[in-house]
Amino acid sequence: MRSEAAPQPGGLERFASPGKGRGLRARRRYAVGELLFDCPAYTAVLAVGERGSHCDGCFARKEGLSKCGRCKQAFYCDVECQKEDWPMHKLECSAMCAFGQNWNPSETVRLTARILAKQKTHPEKTQSEKLLAVKEFESHLDKLDNEKRELIQNDIAALHHFYSKHMEFPDNAALVVLFAQVNCNGFTIEDEELSHLGSAIFPDVALMNHSCCPNVIVTYKGTLAEVRAVREIEPGEEVFTSYIDLLYPTEDRNERLKDSYFFSCDCRECTTKEKDEEKLKIRKLNDPPSAETVRDMIKYARNVIEGFRRAKHYKSPSELLEICELSLDKMGAVFEDSNVYMLHMMYQAMGVCLYMQDWEGALRYGQKIIRPYSQHYPAYSLNVASMWLKLGRLHMALENRPAGVKALKRAIAIMEVAHGKDHPYISEIKKELEDH
Ligand SMILES: [Zn+2]
Ligand SMILES: [Zn+2]
Ligand SMILES: [Zn+2]
Question: Which residue ranges does the record annotate as region Disordered (predicted)?
Answer without folding.
Answer: 1-20
